[in-house]
Sequence to fold (539 residues):
Amino acid sequence: MRKIIILLSIALTFLISFSTIFDKKLDLNGDNANYLTYAHNIAAGHGYSALSYDASYQPVNHFPPAYSFVLSLFMRMGIDSIVFFKVLNGILMLLVIFIISHITARLSGNDWLGLSVGVFLALSAPMLHFATMVMSEMNYAFFSALCFLSLWMYADNQDSGTTSQGQGNSGQALTPWYRCPWFYCAILSAVAAYYFRTMAMACIFALLVFYLVRKEWKQALTSLAIAVVAYLPWVLRNKAAGLESRYFGTIMTVNPWRPEQGTISTPAEFVEKVLKNMDETVVKAFTESLFPFVNVNYNETSSWLLISGALLIIAVMIYGCFVNRKFTWLLFAYFVGNIGLFGLWHGGNGIRYVVPLIPWIVMTFYLGVAGVVRLIKVKVAKPDKSNGKNAKQLDSKGGALQLLALSLIVLALLEIPSVKLLAQQNRQAYPPAYKEYFDIAKQMKRHFKGKHVVVACRKPELFMMYAPDICARRYAFSDKPEEVIRDLEEHNTDYVILDALGYSSTGLYLYPAIMQNQSRFKPVMQYDNPPTYLLHFER
Fold:
């Protein structure tokens, strides 16, 4: 009955928060538009591809294909609704919370601590924000959580000394590992997570460490073999299409949005990039994940006070990993893998890359706090010779830990202002600059129906959501106007949009090219508030 009450409490908290912040609009993040466009192309029979300037559909590998493929399945059934896709993400987020709450309760031996973690996650504004986008974060988080749950069940099966009939079996596994369904569920979930987000390399790494620490060499090798075989089709497809991984290219890039800054050429530059990424993801994003009321500015280098606080958070999380030795190295390896990938990738994305990791950050932090309280209790509650009670017996009653768990819910309630702010932001209409941008797309869709047109703009993904049959592509990011013009010519560009969306690339790259070649750009449409132009490009 208690567990039912806990699940209902978590579900009710989530339903209230999710319905409060729910946004029916397309998010202005270009990636969610890409996912939808690729899904439409798959559903239309063009494969995982994008419309090219030559009117053909060319293979893409911008993201792993799983999320667009899943969306395409619904589209084939006639379900093509952004609201529906967002609701699906919300359901996945709730399932993630249930799994993390359950694992927390099992690791700590305290259901109430599981409740406090569940309530905290149900009120996590960053997770709610991404759950109401058509993005892959919740899918990735779900399959990662399912992998960890499967490993827990696998360990229970293999370490149990009791059969399903309750009879002892001298510590033998209930079933051989190669016949245990949880073994296969774990690795297949990790592979599925990878096909949603490449960051799942950390999940596969943690899974292998889990088996290696247990000295289960056959399980580790079999899991590695399954992962490699499952990954091969994606590798071979990209190789056949002549596509290279954008991730490896980005690792050595100083700033992918400012290509003129070049690539990293010295160890010092590489270290500087890693430290900057660590500051953004670990110091700031970890802090924001747990304490949303702390003012975190991603545009400034963290103060020593914030860094010290983040180090304390990490110390508590590490201690939380050691609360239950069954999961210690699995959790530790998962964090190490993720943090390593954070350091190699590019910055400028705030908390985004950390969002799928928030459930594990919260869980290990709460476990660490509970572990510290338990440790203090054991030190303080010395054996009482008069009644024979000792610290272990006192701890088994769980009174202090239950009180701690319930008090931690107060920390979760401090997230409510962030949830209210997110709800207020989601209720706002699109900014005028985006309204004008989308209106140009709608006008062009009507005017050029049945014709192949190429338009160069800053956010082609969003443009094509309103004009799917027009090939929208990004202009060249070059501070040399002649290279921008050459790129427009080579890709048969018909029109150019000079927008006011607020991206620096417009002023750095497109505007100088237009000003130096004004005779080649003829105004077709113009908006005044803010200034936005559709220009015909004369090749």
